[in-house]
Amino acid sequence: MPSFPSPSSGSPPIATELGQGVRAYQAVVKDFDREVARLLDVNPTDMRCLEILLLDLPEAPPRQLANRLGLATGAVTDRRKTIVRATAEVARRTSH
Description:
57% of the residues lie in helices and 4% in strands. It has 96 residues and is mostly helical. It has one domain (12-94). It has a two-stranded antiparallel sheet.
């Protein structure tokens, strides 16, 4: 992640404002993601998994999801014939 110069380093005001704006935006996105996870009654990792299934991969074996999430493959159950999909109910609850 890039670092933004601090105001004391003589950086131009626009760089400082941009850095503050990006940090504020990231905080709002985290709050939004946390609230959606709460409403769906899932933890943050499961929420990210659902996001991958709904937006990128309609179905995937657990090992592929673990790789996308940056988890050790031992952190997920990986049976050769298991495929993970978002249910129609989750898709309905997360669509606009």
